[in-house]
Design brief:
By secondary structure, this protein is of the alpha/beta class. The chain contains 18 helices and 16 strands. The structure holds zinc ion.
Length: about 500
């Protein structure tokens, strides 16, 4: 009798893909009367059992341990099964799948599996802003992803992206939780005055930069670059504009990078630089400036998210001229290849179906797709079918919160254009209506944390209960939705 047969024969109700045998010990997720448990079966006295906390049942010379899915046991499991530890993805074509609820990873794993192993996944990914909004810690984000990876039996590796970090304290919290991919967002240090300043004003603003950020220190003044046959010259006004706009941002990235390198010590990590959340697009010349200056200041990075032209609104397709996007992206892709080979990152990347083939083709595999809120929308799609009443309550509430919650997001939805709750007949179809979709997207924090008069959470428990008792429906919705995201990128690998 082999090991896994023994655990199966123990009459527990297992998540079938979770069963695994490693170093003579069996592990699986099991549904019990007291909730989901990690089951560990080992020879009594096995050292593998020591690290876990839970209920122990002796079965002859074997011990069956049933452990709750908490942080302690997640850490113990990670120590036993090395494939549950995040690793570096390097320059492989990759996709980040953020999960604001902590329940989406099984669906993400299935989509990545369907893509035939061609896309390197990031299963743990959340920005500090979204963690604050959902009341989760970096450790919870990591652990939720790990339980999902374990549930699906995924052993092919994954990255963990601490997204949009702005301060050293953000780095500390995410490093402690085991993240391996750090996205530094220097957006607060981008000086948008450069966009409208004339040459005289640019000279004055440039003078105010610290010595080591002075345009002349960059060695770029007057340089001409050949961008695949097109020449790009950093004349005085172009360079000054780039230096004024991004100089302090580049310096902030370098400082964060040095802090991270020191704090991480011998632990390997990889870095993304994101300037996607700025008012104005990043020009090709500015991209050259950023890459060249990051290099000069000793930063090593695997991906960069410029602000591309057009609108990347949350959870909806690209808004803008596709030919213009193509020309814009093509230039960025050439620069990324010429300045040391790093990936171009597509932030707010979910649901941008019309640009995926363009980005995949032009990046030649050097691309990272980043998605987050769209998995929450798939949760709402699941609820829209299974609990119409709850879905309607959430939509009504989302409408009330929208004008406030939209402030920190790029969205253009108007309440007046979204159907009134009482007019919604086909609930899942509401998720295809542009305005309703954005309204539902940006209000997730309010929906998940809103409290009723009695102090209880108004929606959260019911929300999670529907998903927990319909795991297969949620996973199937996610799988279908993410296959659409991953397929176009698979072709270019
Ligand atoms: Zn972003």
């Amino acid at each position: 009798m082999n090991m896994s047969t023994r655990l199966i024969s123990s009459a527990l109700h297992f998540f079938p893909r979770s069963l695994v045998s490693h170093n003579g010990v069996e592990y699986a997720l099991a549904q019990t009367n007291s909730g989901t448990r990690l089951a560990v079966l080992a020879a009594s006295g096995s050292t593998a059992l020591i690290a876990f906390e839970g209920e122990r049942v002796e079965q002859g010379n074997q011990t069956l341990l049933l452990a709750p899915l908490d942080a302690h046991n997640a850490s113990a499991l990670r120590a036993q099964l090395p494939w549950l530890q995040p690793r570096l993805l390097g320059l492989r074509t990759s996709a980040g799948m953020g999960d604001r609820l902590g329940l989406a990873t099984p669906g993400h794993v299935r989509a990545v599996r369907a893509a035939g192993g061609k896309i390197a996944p990031i299963f743990a990914q959340q920005s500090i802003r979204e963690m604050t909004r959902t009341g989760r810690t970096p450790q919870q984000v990591m652990d939720d992803a790990i339980w999902g990876i374990f549930a699906e039996g995924w052993q092919e590796g994954f990255g963990a992206d601490a997204d949009h970090l702005k301060t050293p304290a953000d780095i500390d919290a995410c490093l402690a939780a085991g993240f391996t991919f750090f996205t530094i967002d220097p957006g607060a240090h981008v000086d948008n005055r450069a966009e409208t300043a004339n040459l005289g004003e640019l000279r004055v603003l440039a003078e105010m930069l610290p010595d080591y950020l002075q345009p002349r220190a960059s060695g770029l003044m007057g340089r001409i670059f050949d961008i695949e046959g097109r020449s790009l010259q950093l004349d005085e006004s172009t360079l000054l504009k780039a230096a004024v706009k991004y100089g302090r941002a580049v310096a902030h990235v370098a400082a964060m990078y040095q802090y991270l390198a020191q704090a991480a010590g011998p632990r390997p990590f990889e870095l993304e630089v994101s300037v996607d959340e700025t008012d104005q697009p990043t020009s090709h010349a500015e991209h050259v400036y950023i890459a060249s200056e990051l290099k000069r200041l000793g930063v090593k990075w695997v991906s960069l998210a410029p602000r591309y032209i057009g609108c990347f609104e949350k959870g909806v397709d690209y808004i803008g001229d596709l030919a213009a996007f193509e020309a814009n992206f093509a230039g960025h892709a050439v620069i990324a290849r010429q300045f040391g080979s790093y990936k171009l990152s597509l932030h707010s990347g979910s649901d941008k179906f019309s640009i995926y083939p363009i980005a995949a083709r032009l990046a030649r595999g050097l691309v990272h797709l980043k998605t987050a809120g769209t998995s929450y929308l798939e949760a709402l799609r699941t609820i829209a079918v299974l609990d119409v009443t709850l879905f309607h309550e959430i939509y009504s509430f989302a409408r009330q919160c929208y004008e406030t919650d939209r402030a920190s997001y790029h969205v253009s939805a108007e309440l007046g254009r979204a159907p009134l709750p009482e007019d919604v007949e086909d609930s899942p179809a509401l998720l295809e209506q542009f305005d309703a979709r954005e309204i539902l997207h940006v209000t997730f924090g309010s929906v998940l944390t809103e409290k009723a008069a009695d102090g209880q959470k108004r929606f959260y428990d019911r929300f999670i209960a529907v998903l927990n008792s319909n795991r297969e429906s949620y996973a199937a919705n996610l799988e279908k939705h993410f296959i659409r995201h991953l397929e176009p990128f698979k072709e270019s690998v």
